[in-house]
Write a structure and sequence with these properties.
The chain has helices at residues 15-18, 20-25, 65-80, 82-104, 192-195, 228-252, 265-275, 289-299, 306-313, 317-329, 348-356; strands at residues 2-5, 7-8, 38-45, 51-60, 109-120, 126-136, 140-142, 145-148, 155-156, 161-166, 171-177, 182-184, 187-191, 203-208, 303-305, 333-338, 341-346. The chain has 357 residues and is α+β, with helices and mostly antiparallel strands. Strand 16 and strand 17 form a beta hairpin. It starts with a strand and ends with a helix.
Length: 357
């Protein structure tokens, strides 16, 4: 996932007075980090919640020879004093990280800071001072759900900054706040000029799409169609088995005394199912969402994939994830991963209680 933001809260206004260029040169004629025309930060989010962050300070050089000369001086200063610049940038982001830890309760860490300079000519001529570092536990991850943005609680979206959040093709957005300025495909953009000086970073929730649909393909090793002769043999076996079960039940019902079977064999089979307690479940419309999942889980022998819940209950993946998370928090079910699939099972305590009954 790609996240593009501005600069650490409290750092933008102070960068000019604390940046190495300002300290070493001490003149208002030279460019500093605070003089950047735009500040762009890219956060490449990983599935485990860690991220690689890139902060790009951009200077529009254009055809202004004086600005071009100032950029050359800044570029030389950064390359000559790279560690000093790195220390200043790391200090600013450390403050943002600490505020994020207080807000989220997650242990985080930023490390591996580097800095480089370069120039680009598209769409206009720019000079770039770009910092890169790793952010551990940037996002909250729960199975196939990712929540991003809370780590930037101390981040302010200022003028001349831009905030853009993107995500991999395998994820869908289920919630975002506030509304982005623009959005297209798998990215959204917030413009600091439009958001105002007190704008906070957005919160985004993502759900990973399941590729279980591919499992039904024979090429992928999924279920295959049974030959006609196999289906016919199976049908005969079902009829024979059902007849035997019904006959045995008729002779067992009142000791050894036989009971006359109804003329309609289908009605007989239905009465067997009812007496066995298999048709006593209430209709789905009378069940809560949680009860519907537990009922489906019980029908499947206490184990099924989360995507089966989506398909059989005709729910969205977001709704299914929310209900499953609630059941998991209430210790009603256990959830674990097999590859990229979530698998639901009856919680061990629940299973023990049922076995005791």
């Amino acid at each position: 996932m790609l996240l593009v933001v501005g600069s650490p809260a409290g750092a933008t206004a102070d960068v000019g007075s604390t940046s190495p260029a300002a300290i070493q040169q001490g003149s208002g004629d030279e460019l500093t980090l605070d003089d950047a025309d735009t500040i762009l930060t890219e956060v490449e989010l990983q599935s485990d919640g860690n991220a690689t962050v890139s902060v790009d300070y951009r200077y529009h050089i254009g055809n202004d020879s004086e600005t071009a000369e100032q950029w050359d001086e800044l570029e030389q200063d950064v390359n000559s004093n790279d560690q000093t610049y790195i220390d200043e940038e790391a200090s600013s982001w450390q403050e943002t990280l600490e505020e994020g830890e207080n807000e989220t309760g997650r242990d985080m860490n930023v490390s591996g800071f580097t800095v480089e300079t370069n120039e680009s000519t598209t769409p206009r001529e720019y000079g770039h001072v770009q910092f890169t570092f790793d952010w551990e536990s940037f996002a909250y991850v729960e199975l196939n759900r990712i929540e991003a943005g809370d780590a930037l609680t101390g981040f302010m979206l200022d003028d001349d900054t831009e905030l853009q959040i993107g995500w991999p093709d395998t994820y869908n957005v289920t919630a975002v706040d506030p509304e982005p300025t623009t959005s297209e495909d798998n990215w959204a953009t917030w413009d600091g000029d439009d958001a105002g000086s007190d704008a906070q970073p957005p919160k985004v929730e993502l759900i990973e799409e399941s590729d279980s649909a591919n499992e039904s393909s024979p090429e992928d090793g999924g279920p295959r169609s049974m030959p006609a002769d196999t289906l016919a043999a199976a049908a005969v076996l079902v009829v024979v088995t059902t007849t035997a079960v019904v006959a045995g039940w008729l002779f067992r019902r009142d000791g050894d005394e036989p009971v006359t079977a109804p003329e309609n064999g289908a009605e007989s089979a239905e009465s067997v199912a009812t007496d066995a307690g298999q048709a006593t479940m209430p209709p789905p419309e009378l069940l809560s969402n949680e009860e519907r999942v537990l009922q489906l889980l019980e029908k499947r022998g206490g184990r099924l994939k989360q995507q089966q819940v989506v398909s059989e209950l005709d729910w969205t993946e977001a709704k299914t994830s929310q209900v499953v998370s609630g059941l998991r928090e209430d210790d009603e079910i256990d959830v674990f991963r097999i590859g990229r699939e979530n698998v639901l099972t009856v919680a061990e305590e629940e299973a023990d209680d049922r076995s005791d009954e």
